[in-house]
Amino acid sequence: MVDNEQALDRAFTALGDPVRRAIVARLSRGEATVNELADLFPITKQAVSRHIGVLEDAGLITRSRDGQRRPCHLDPAALERLTSWIDGYRLAAESRFRKLDAVLETLKEEEER
Amino acid sequence: MSTNPTTIEAPEGTPFLDVTRVFDATPAQVFRAYTDPELIAQWLGPRDLEIDIEEYDARPGGRYRYVHHGGHLGEQRAGFHGVFHTVEKDRLIIQTFEYEGVPDEVKLDILRIEEVDGKARVVGHSVFPSVRAREGALASGMSHGINDSMERLTELLAKGV
Description:
Chain A has helices spanning 2-14, 18-27, 34-38, 45-57, 76-83, 86-112; strands at 61-63, 72-74.
């Protein structure tokens, strides 16, 4: 449980950066190499490599070897652990609150009538 | 309709869960939505489920019980019940909460409604009987709403969560 919490902490910390979130969003659509990812951002390839290192340490992505290429992949299991925990709760709460927004909207309309 | 952000905090090593959300409504409207069973039925619980409210007596000492069914639950019926401890109009609701699938793990929900800049801020503080009970509730009860975690995570990330 503690190990799990530390892993979650690392993952959430890693996702605290907008570039790393964008990298994860890009990888959710399929694998990509560092060069391909570097093309997406106005930062150096070295900076992209560092971000990838942080995501790798957080267990969110893995890298494989494919000849000369070393593509990055999103680890679906790691994401599932994230989404099934607090983000899962957040999604459930958010969905509930949006329904409540709609209920409150009808209450306001009723009162204006 | 604008959507206001939801703040969720589950401080490590504590049995607490704090959820804060602002609504574009008055505290009186929010209080009504939280205490009128007809309104509760319109928003409580996951979107894909139906809800039968057997009892919803939002007064000090009053009881409530509702059952979720349909959607991802299939044949299963999930019952929830508790009692209202404190109900102060437009301001404060303190109630117990028990999921009948995990009996005797009773949670205390303290809900404050505050007026901030003409809107209602709802500050929920939940106390689980143990840290483990909190982790269990978050991990199991809340994950079912996610059908395609990848896609949804991407949506979350796109929103800059």
